[in-house]
């Protein structure tokens, strides 16, 4: 899978560079690649600093989900900007580092993560939302077994049987 992705990346980047070099010339293409990389790095740096300030300021439970998703998108956008190539830099900078486009990409990332991460239903979830999540999970992954976890606290002093001291034969 990784080799296929790398092959797709190499083909797309090569096609973009060849098309751009034939259209505007080799020198301008290299200048555009360098400028895109530098602008992307500046944008990535400002977004990373912004998210670090946001995470340090403290978040409520409702804001935490959006902050984690935004941080993942900023990290992915930064990686795409740092990877050499014009297409990856443009995708990283425009789609994942700018806040308006990141808001559009957030539901897609949430859907991908929900499909990859196993469903964990906490104690606080109840009602039709939990039932809908269980049914969606069971349709996707097979049977759902409803259960209850009981914490057991062992007391070693009570579990060990008392032994009498050994006796000498009489």
From TrEMBL:
GO cellular component annotations of the record: membrane
Keyword presence, NADP: no
Keyword NAD: no
InterPro entries per record: FxsA
Residue spans crossing the bilayer: 31-52, 73-97, 117-137
Superkingdom of origin: Bacteria
Keywords on record: Membrane, Transmembrane, Transmembrane helix
Protein name per UniProt: Protein affecting phage T7 exclusion by the F plasmid
Organism from which the protein derives: Mycolicibacterium chubuense (strain NBB4)
């Amino acid at each position: 899978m990784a080799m296929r992705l790398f092959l797709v990346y190499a083909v797309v980047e090569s096609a973009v560079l060849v098309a751009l070099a034939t259209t505007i010339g080799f020198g301008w293409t290299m200048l555009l690649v360098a400028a895109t990389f530098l602008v992307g790095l500046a944008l990535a740096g400002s977004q990373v600093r912004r998210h670090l300030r946001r995470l340090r300021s403290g978040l409520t439970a409702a804001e935490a989900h959006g902050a984690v998703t935004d941080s993942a998108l900023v990290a992915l956008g930064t990686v795409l900007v740092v990877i050499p190539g014009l297409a990856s830099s443009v995708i990283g900078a425009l789609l994942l580092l700018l806040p308006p486009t990141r808001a559009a990409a957030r539901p897609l990332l949430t859907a991908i993560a929900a499909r990859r991460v196993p469903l964990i239903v906490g104690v606080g979830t109840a009602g039709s939302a939990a039932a809908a999540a269980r049914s969606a999970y069971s349709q996707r992954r097979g049977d759902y077994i409803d259960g209850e976890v009981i914490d057991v606290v062992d007391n070693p002093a009570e579990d060990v049987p008392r032994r009498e001291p050994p006796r000498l034969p009489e």
